[in-house]
Amino acid sequence: MSRVAFLGLGHMGLPMAKNLIAAGHEVRGFDLMDAAVEAAKAAGVPVTEFGIDAVSGAEVVITMFPAGRHVISAYQDGLLAAAEPGTLFIESSTIAVDEARTAHELAVAAGHRNIDAPVSGGVVGAENGTLAFMVGGTDEDFAAALPLLEAMGKRIVHCGGPGLGQAAKVCNNMILAVSQIAVAEAFVLGERLGLEHQALFDVVSQASGQCWSITTNCPVPGPVPTSPANRDYQPGFAGALMAKDLGLALQAIEQTSTDARMGRLAQELYAVYAEGPGATRDFSGIITDIREDLV
Ligand code: NAD
């Protein structure tokens, strides 16, 4: 069992911290926001007054922050200095590949170890301990982190060296965005051709157009009763989070001069979608905007 500091007890971090405690780890949490601190206390997660108090004496430090700038500044503004030499830093926020590499270099320069371990599976996956972790780091650090990741997740893939967990995440979400748009366009086109939703679903879900965006996240109500379309597009995976992840994809596309026109277009469409009510609706709700010619 490990002594773990868990920083960032928001929608994802708090249930992840709870699962670590349930697996027998000793967790001290910290968050900057009073509401998150109160929720953590109510959920039985011990919290410290300052981040450095949680970190001092911990064997592992997990961060689950909104964005890369929070990670870099927290590392630089005391976390790395407060940790015992050789502490394993697990960075689980979704951040840019180059930010993950910067965080890794900062941690190593301060005498620590670091992996990037972003997740997919959303709040439900965090609560149920069924997250997927995509990990970038050395073999030794991956092996050391594995028992902790297994307490919070179900599928854990070592993707390669530092930053490559984030690389896998950004590539996956770019595919997801493009496929969700393609499925939405196909349903709208089908409607205009007189095709019933169920008929199109029955064909595509068993044919070569088959993908998660239709079989699980079907953007029209009916064919998949559990998809967000059946509950007025309550997320699920909110448009704002998809727009954020596509912003990271665009950054990676530009830095690598990759000819990713579909990814660029998906980023443009989701940026527009997330400017409106789509920010808090499931990202499959983009079908409404496509139907009404809003994106
Ligand atoms: P959130 O905003 O609910 O939680 C982030 C928490 O970090 C906040 O409570 C904030 O106060 C805290 N924080 C920020 N800076 C801090 C610091 N220096 N010290 C301590 N606490 C600090 O966000 P979330 O939904 O939990 O997402 C966290 C990360 O996981 C994001 O990077 C997001 O992109 C990623 N993610 C989220 C989902 C999802 O469905 N919510 C799914 C996959 C990945």
Automatic annotation (TrEMBL):
InterPro entries: 3-OH-isobutyrate_DH-rel_CS, 6-PGluconate_DH-like_C_sf, 6PGD_dom2, 6PGDH_NADP-bd, HIBADH, HIBADH-like_NADP-bd, HIBADH-related, NAD(P)-bd_dom_sf. Pfam families: NAD_binding_11, NAD_binding_2. Its EC number is 1.1.1.31. Residues 3-160 form the 6-phosphogluconate dehydrogenase NADP-binding domain. GO terms for molecular function: 3-hydroxyisobutyrate dehydrogenase activity; NAD binding; NADP binding. Belongs to the HIBADH-related family. This is 3-hydroxyisobutyrate dehydrogenase.
